[in-house]
From TrEMBL:
The keyword Secreted does not apply. It comes from the Bacteria. This is DNA polymerase Y family protein. PANTHER family: BLR3025 PROTEIN, BLR3025 PROTEIN-RELATED. The lineage of its organism: Bacteria, Pseudomonadati, Pseudomonadota, Alphaproteobacteria, Hyphomicrobiales. GO terms for biological process: DNA repair. Residues 364-386 are annotated as: Disordered. InterPro entries: DNA/RNA_pol_sf, SulA_CellDiv_inhibitor. Keywords: DNA damage. It comes from Phyllobacterium pellucidum.
Length: 480
């Protein structure tokens, strides 16, 4: 493999035969062709390599939900609590190698006590299963490049006569830090597990998960649906033991050719029964641009609850009909599945004193607990403090007033003159200085009623005493 590096074509990877012939990574292509006339070369494509690595990571979800990328060419799998599903470590490694070799890939693996050690042993040693009692000896034999240090630091360490990780680990920490910085010591601590460095999985780890591995791949969709029903029954039994329902469920379909298809279902209320889930699943399947295709068959199907919530008893009416709120929630779930959460919205209050920002739209499937806040109840008998309808942006009006700080006596809006008979205010609202630009002005709001009984909400932008020469008037809303 060749790529353009520093305005020259250089080798970025060589196979076993080329390595035995003396070619190496970083070698100039002209030097390689000077030794061998007939070279089978291909141009490197890091983007396609990354896409392939992402697909391999999806495929590795069949072994554990904790899969992380170890760029540029590796994957890290946290197998804690998953080994028993495959028998033991040798059986698991044998299955990984067999499955990938069937797709024409060569893989090198290593089992170790932490992610950094496993990555270094897989890249720079023979790999395999490393026993805890033998791990330090294996790590001591690794070359310095296994620490992922800068080239300048590695060159400096080699000039000092250091060749392996063991040569470096026995030196005083203070001297290493003073000469090469914290990176060397941090790399050693991560390699030997002295410093906890958890991996960052690519996908959300399910709260509760069930799966089914098939002895023979499933091709018929009727069989796939039957397996989904069985998995849903098992999942809801487990969630019921936790007194929880599923707010977000993901179904994963693993094909024998390595492709993984995922369907995600989000609900506005906790799901607790298989019938409702399957109804939403069918709605989701009907909206797919690419139908669910089994190809050569699914060899594993997984159902996981990504988000859960405490369940509560639903109040029933006297004639055993469900409450109207539950019917509305069902409608919201169906619309959200068909149209998408970003298209089924409802207003929610926002904690701010700026009128046009007090309401935001959010997915209707969110619960009140996940929303920004609660609506403030209006005291009975009092006139409303805010109008029912707001204009965004506020509309400019021409106002006539007796003194600069008084409410307008009359104003012209949309070429119609309104004579003010009642006025209430002002209500002063200052800008949010932490998010507004420096030129934002203070507003004085007034509630006005004209001679025909119409009520308006207007404000004056800017104050004379603060240096605004000609404050402007705007109509911001209308009262019912």
């Amino acid at each position: 493999m060749v790529d353009k590096i520093a305005n020259a074509l250089r080798l970025t990877a060589v196979d076993e035969q080329a390595a035995k012939a003396g070619l190496y990574k970083g070698m100039a292509l002209t030097d390689a062709r000077a030794q061998f006339d007939k070279l089978d070369i291909a141009f490197a494509s890091p983007r396609k390599d990354g896409e392939l690595l992402e697909k391999l990571a999806d495929w590795c979800d069949r072994y554990t939900p904790l899969v992380a990328l170890d760029a540029p060419h590796g994957l890290i799998l946290d197998m804690t609590g998953c080994i028993h599903l495959f028998g033991d470590e040798p059986t698991l490694l044998k299955d990984v190698h067999r499955q990938l070799q069937r797709h024409g890939m060569i893989v090198k693996t290593a089992f170790a006590g932490n992610a950094a050690a496993a990555s270094a042993l897989a890249r720079h040693s023979a790999g395999g299963i490393v026993e805890p009692s033998d791990q330090n000896r294996r790590l001591y034999a690794l070359p310095l490049v296994s620490l992922d240090l800068e080239d300048a630091h590695i060159a400096g360490l080699r000039r000092a006569g250091l060749r392996t990780v063991g040569d470096l680990d026995v030196l005083p920490r203070a001297a290493l830090t003073a000469r090469f910085g914290n990176g060397v010591v941090a790399g050693l601590d991560a390699l030997f597990g002295r410093q906890s460095k958890p991996i960052s999985p690519r996908r959300i780890v399910p709260v509760c998960m069930v799966e089914r591995r098939m002895a023979e791949p499933l091709i018929a969709m009727e069989a796939v649906e039957l397996v989904l029903v069985q998995l849903a029954d098992e999942l809801f039994i487990r969630l019921g033991q936790r007194v929880e329902g599923a707010r977000e469920i993901e179904a994963s379909f693993f094909r024998t050719d390595g492709n993984v298809r995922r369907l995600r279902i989000e609900a506005g209320r906790p799901l607790t029964d298989t019938k409702t889930l399957m109804r939403l699943m069918k709605e989701r399947l009907s909206t797919l641009a690419e139908p669910l295709d089994a190809g050569f068959g699914f060899d594993m199907i997984r159902l996981g609850a990504l988000r859960t919530d405490r369940t509560r008893h639903q109040q029933k009416s006297l004639d055993d009909r469900e409450q109207e709120t539950e019917e509305v929630e069902r409608l919201i779930d169906r619309l959200s599945i068909r149209l998408g959460n970003s298209r089924v919205l409802r207003p929610t209050p926002v904690d701010t004193h700026i009128p046009e920002r007090t309401v935001a739209l959010e997915p209707a499937s969110k619960t009140k607990r996940e929303s920004n806040g609660e609506w403030t109840a209006q005291p009975q008998g009092d006139p409303p403090e805010r109008p029912v309808r707001l204009f965004q942006p506020p509309e400019r009006i021409e106002a006539t007033f007796e003194v600069p700080d008084s409410p307008p006596a009359q104003f012209i809006w949309r070429r119609v003159r309104h004579n003010v008979v009642l006025a209430e205010g002002p209500e002063r609202i200052a800008p949010e200085w932490w998010r507004e630009h420096s030129g934002a002005l203070t507003r004085d709001y007034y509630r006005l009623e004209d001679s025909s009984g119409k009520r308006f909400w207007v404000f004056r932008e800017g104050l004379l005493e603060r240096g605004t020469p000609n404050p402007r008037w705007y109509l911001h809303g209308l009262f019912a």
